[in-house]
Design brief:
mainly alpha, 5 helices
Length: 157
């Protein structure tokens, strides 16, 4: 059986041998570093290659395609603006209708208050004004509550 000390010495010796072997073999450095270094060398080679020049027909076709793309982009932009303008008009019309309805309600309330504010107006005229107003439905929240029960004769602290 190997003691801890002897095992430790043996492993240190193997480690030093491996490090020495790595320094002696520079060919394996590419393998140790990984694939990234080899790719960089290949990239440098592809960069130095000269590109084949385009022909006149290719350049004309490319310019024509650019012009078509520009025209299509302008058409789409015009359509978006027209659609947005139409939506704004619809919203403005709805807003105006709602504002008119609110203003009418305010005028009616003001007229009712002006007519009722006089203390000398007879009840008959007030009843006529109430009849002219649109009938309001009783809401569920306005349900009559039962009468209060008599308080308990007992006092709780």
């Amino acid at each position: 059986m190997e003691t801890k000390l002897s095992k430790k010495e043996r492993l240190l010796k193997e480690l030093k041998d491996l490090e020495n072997d790595n320094l002696e073999e520079p060919e394996d450095l590419g393998i140790q570093r990984g694939k990234g270094d080899d790719d960089e060398v290949e990239k440098k080679e592809t960069i130095t290659k000269a590109k084949k020049p385009r022909t006149e027909a290719q350049m004309k076709a490319f310019e024509k395609a650019r012009e078509n793309a520009k025209l299509n982009a302008e058409k789409r932009k015009a359509e978006r603006e027209a659609k947005a303008l139409e939506e704004r008009k619809i919203i403005e019309e709805k807003l105006i209708k709602k504002a008119i309805a609110v203003k009418k309600k305010q005028i009616k309330k003001a007229a009712v208050l002006d007519e009722i504010s006089d203390d000398e107006t007879p009840l008959v005229e007030i009843e006529k004004i109430v009849k002219q107003l649109p009938a309001k439905n009783k809401s569920k929240t306005a349900i009559e509550l039962p009468a209060k029960k008599e308080p308990s004769p007992y006092i709780f602290f």
